[in-house]
């Protein structure tokens, strides 16, 4: 009988019915079967596992062994997975190439090209787009010295293509004034897990709704927590890769999760968030679950999904920093529409003034107030220094855009004295 990849219980039953021996094969089981072919044993069944089927001539499917094969004793070559952002500005694309030896810095990697007409980033008659390696992470899927490579995209003439937001962010973060302020970012990425065929949240009855929000946030239990294995697998994959992930939790809406990246300095924040999103896409792919970064995946009395961005500068973290934070908030209020227009598609469905959000059309701030545009923590107020939390960015925001805009607005942009005085009066700020 032919070897079968069994993604469901129905396939498992079919294999068992039509074959004499059918059991999931792990690397350890392979060795035990070869050493002791008469030994009988069944391993724990999981939903997505390569099944070994003994055929008439005794051949065994060794796909799992090959996937886990360590090639380092046999070659110095490694596999580099080049990752870039596609034409929608939120989709991640990737392809692999062999590198002759392990590398430690992106400058050691060659540039590469791809077909931009297939990603919505170039016309068919001039489709070549060039990838520039920018950041390296360890590959948790292939292991060994294999790597993931975050790239940005350019025309053959060396101009950044329109969807390359990293280029502009790198310019802002290389400004001497910005560098001297050592901008820290902590980004809270919320996401929703959907059932594959129906695109309905994981754990929800198909075509129906679970009980109202309340019992699900940071909860445990089969009736309250849906997708914990995916969250945990992603957590460990990020740690392995070298992503500065700092925590994770179940969110208010069932089937929704969050993880935090940071504190990260400057352009590193965007690199780490994009790589973490790639890992999450790969893990949900393997689990047979759909990842959604829609800011309001379910209409009605359900929380949306944001990407709250915590931000501080050296001056904010030092004595007298609270006055610096208030000045930053003042600048942010004056550029509210500029920020909103760059904070994610569909964000108007989320920023309604309900479900722990501020209304999209107005700017507000407060201490410990999750219904404001910008929140300042109680500890920051008490200590007179710390950070602010911009609660406006949507879950599908581009971290390069958001972090660069925050740095630009608070460190490089200067309002007129009249505008500053008016905004201070409106927000009751004394700076």
- CATH T-level topology of the largest domain: Creatine Kinase, Chain A, domain 2
What gyration radius follows from the Cα positions, in whole Å? 25 Å
Report the order of strands and helices: EHEHEHEEEEEHHEHEEHEEHHHEEHEHH
CATH architecture of the largest domain: 2-Layer Sandwich
Number of domains: 3
Specify the structural class.
alpha+beta
Instruction: Name the CATH superfamily assignment of the largest domain.
Output: Glutamine synthetase/guanido kinase, catalytic domain
Catalytic activity: L-glutamate + NH4(+) + ATP = L-glutamine + ADP + phosphate + H(+)
EC number: 6.3.1.2
Family: Belongs to the glutamine synthetase family.
Keywords: ATP-binding, Chloroplast, Ligase, Nucleotide-binding, Plastid, Transit peptide
Quick description:
The chain has 431 residues and is α+β, with helices and mostly antiparallel strands. Helix content is 29%, strand content 22%. One of its GO terms (molecular function) is glutamine synthetase activity.
Helices and strands in order:
Layout: E1 4-6, H1 9-18, E2 22-24, H2 27-35, E3 49-53, H3 63-67, E4 78-85, E5 92-99, E6 112-115, E7 128-138, E8 147-154, H4 166-173, H5 176-180, E9 184-195, H6 228-241, E10 245-250, E11 256-265, H7 268-287, E12 289-292, E13 309-312, H8 314-317, H9 321-334, H10 336-340, E14 365-367, E15 374-376, H11 378-383, E16 388-390, H12 399-412, H13 417-427
């Amino acid at each position: 009988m032919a070897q079968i990849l069994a993604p469901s219980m129905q396939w498992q039953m079919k294999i068992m019915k039509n074959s004499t021996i059918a059991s999931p094969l792990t690397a350890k089981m392979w060795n035990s079967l070869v050493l002791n072919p008469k030994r009988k044993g069944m391993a724990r069944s999981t939903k997505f596992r390569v099944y070994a089927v003994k055929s008439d001539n005794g051949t065994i499917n060794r796909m799992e062994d090959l996937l886990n094969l360590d090639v380092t004793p046999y070659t110095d070559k490694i596999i580099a997975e080049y990752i870039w952002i596609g034409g929608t500005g939120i989709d991640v694309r990737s392809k692999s190439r062999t590198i002759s030896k392990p590398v430690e810095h992106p400058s050691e990697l060659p540039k590469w090209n791809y077909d931009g007409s297939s990603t919505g980033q170039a016309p068919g008659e001039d489709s070549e787009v060039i990838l520039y390696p920018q950041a390296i992470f360890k590959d948790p899927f292939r292991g060994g010295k294999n790597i993931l490579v975050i790239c940005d995209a350019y025309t053959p003439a060396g101009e950044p293509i329109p969807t390359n937001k990293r280029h502009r962010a790198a310019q802002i973060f290389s400004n001497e004034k910005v560098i001297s302020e050592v901008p820290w970012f902590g980004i809270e990425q919320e996401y929703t897990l959907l059932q594959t065929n129906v695109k309905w949240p994981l754990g929800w009855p198909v075509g129906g709704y679970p009980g109202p929000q309340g019992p699900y946030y940071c909860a445990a239990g089969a009736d309250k927590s849906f997708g914990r294995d995916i969250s945990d697998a992603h957590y460990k994959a990020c740690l392995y890769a070298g992503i500065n992930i700092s925590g994770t939790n179940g969110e208010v809406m069932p089937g929704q999760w969050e993880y935090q990246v940071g504190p990260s300095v400057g352009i590193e924040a965007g690199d780490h968030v994009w790589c973490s999103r790639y890992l999450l896409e790969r893990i949900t792919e393997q689990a047979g679950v759909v990842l959604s970064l829609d800011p309001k995946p379910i209409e009605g009395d359900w929380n949306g999904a944001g990407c709250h961005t915590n931000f501080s500068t050296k001056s904010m973290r030092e004595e007298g920093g609270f006055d610096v934070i208030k000045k930053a908030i003042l600048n942010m209020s004056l550029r509210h529409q500029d920020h909103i227009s760059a904070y994610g598609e569909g964000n108007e469905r989320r920023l309604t003034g309900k479900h722990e959000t501020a209304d999209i059309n107005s700017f507000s701030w407060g201490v410990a107030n999750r219904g404001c545009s910008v929140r300042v923590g109680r500890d920051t107020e008490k200590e007179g220094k710390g950070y602010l939390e911009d609660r406006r960015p949507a879950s599908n925001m581009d971290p390069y855009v958001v972090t660069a805009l925050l740095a630009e607005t608070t460190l490089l942009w200067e309002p007129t004295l009249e505008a500053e005085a008016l905004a201070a009066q409106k927000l009751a700020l004394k700076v």
